[in-house]
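URGENT: need a sanity check before tomorrow's submission.

F., can you look over the D-glucuronyl C5-epimerase family protein record below? I want to be sure the sequence and structure line up before it goes out.
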Amino acid sequence: MLASPQANTPADAATKRTVLSELVRLRDAGAITPAAYAEHRATYLDARRLLGKLSGSRRIGMRAPLVHLDRIARDGLLTSGRVPALMLTVKRNREAWCCDPLPRNGQRRTFGRSQLVWQHYLGQGWQIQWLATFGKANALWSFKKKDDELRALLDEAITLAAPRAGGIAWEYLFAFGGGRPPWASGMAQATGIQSLSRAAIRLKDPVYFEAARSALGIFKTAPPSGVRVDVAPGRSHYLLYSYARGQRVLNGFNQAVNGLHDFATLANDEQGRELYARGVKQLAAELPRYDTGGWSRYQLGGAASDIGYHKLARDFLRGLCERTRADRTRAGAAQNGGAAPEPAGGATPTQPPPDTSAEPAPVVEVDPQPFCDMATRFTSDLRRGPRLEVLTSRTRAGARGAVRIRVDKPATVTVTVSRDGKTVGARTATVQPGTPVFVYTAKAQAGRYRVTVRATDLLGFRGATSAVLTVARP
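Structure tokens as predicted:
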């Protein structure tokens, strides 16, 4: 009998893929061992059994990682390289939702003796937070007496990296911001490369340099596999999220550049230098567009940063300022035959200076001034009130009046319109930097009015200004 035309189509094949069938396929292909197959099968079935007994928040938290795992298997993305992190995620969620107290959204924790940092995402269960994990690695490195914990953390992280973009990547395995798992973060990946490079020197183990070098893949590859977007000859932007090609986030890009710099310096790696050079040149070109004149923008074309992201952007820029200054000094010393200084770095736990036990290698020389100046600007923004300007000086009577103002940072603004000491209109709103419009309620009559603007920024600093508004006859 002839098969029907619809038989064995890709769609049919996809509907037949399950987690268990894909584990069998990997075992039969020799991609995973029989022992690993038996362990992963038991983990999956045990989590499924628990799911049937749960309700409410616990069921939602346990269900999410299983749903993502099922979809990844159905889409044919369950590779041997992804299995360890996926199954560990299922296992940790099974442990947590079985017996532990209910977590709050955003809560972080570790499990047992593992150094990995996990975070609870509402509706997504417990997930490995790779940025926090590698930030912890940098913190362990900075203590200088935590080598055993540093080695344990990075060794476990390496086993959980998945093949991606011609190298390895520490993938996020949950839905976030419109992205479906598995996806990669340029910021987290660069922080991982940074911590591995430092550990290679501290622990005198080249295996960490090898892992860091393999992790460069996403910085050489376009999204959605990688995070590199070529903007101009010799210049690239590195994305925060591999699935968000159009989103250009300052802190994520800056930290990617910092991490690539430290790898290129400590590993004396030519490919690392080339990737760093492409990124730092593009960051210098983009940087003015992240400045509102009084505050930072979280992303190009988007809203202003909140306080935390503004400070983070300032700190990462400080780190790049110090790095590029040190590169320039080293280049001058090399030309003069003098000794090169130690490489520089930031002072926060996620940005400790590179290890001084290694001789710094030459890195691309870049003008440090744009990064230093912007870091100084962002610091001063934290210490003053909003700058305000009334842009409307004349309007006509007979309709509700409108007053345009300019504010240089996010603030809560109150605009009051008065005549002869009597208020004829007032509005209060929380606004973004730019030129918002405030409409006052009274139908304006011809005459001269006083417009008073008061604003309070995110830190409580205040600003005020006033101007005369002339209302002409209709």
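My own read: The chain has 13 helices and 15 strands. The CA atoms of residues 178 and 211 lie 29 Å apart. If you see anything odd, call me.
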